[in-house]
Specification:
- It contains one helix and four strands, in the order βαβββ.
- It has 66 residues and is mainly β.
- It has one domain.
- Strands 1-2 form a two-stranded antiparallel ribbon. The protein has a two-stranded antiparallel ribbon with strand order 3-4.
- GO terms for molecular function: single-stranded DNA binding.
């Protein structure tokens, strides 16, 4: 099935690698979900920019047709 990806590092690792100087405006899980095959409909954390800094939000991974 397409649309899968892996996530095995902590969010803290990704934040340090992608944006070490950015302010993170909300909390996040310290432990990774440790999955090498994240399937659609799994709840995952994403990093997105906001006016105040970076926001880490839990979202449902996948795509729903109209």
């Amino acid at each position: 099935m397409c649309g899968r990806y892996s996530i095995y590092e902590s969010m803290n690792y990704y934040l340090k690698e992608l944006a070490p100087e950015q302010l993170v405006v909300n909390g996040y899980d310290l432990c990774p979900i440790e999955r090498y095959n994240v399937a659609p409909s799994t709840r995952v954390e994403i990093i997105r920019p906001t006016q105040e800094g970076l926001s880490v939000d839990k979202v449902r991974w996948g795509w729903e047709p109209f």
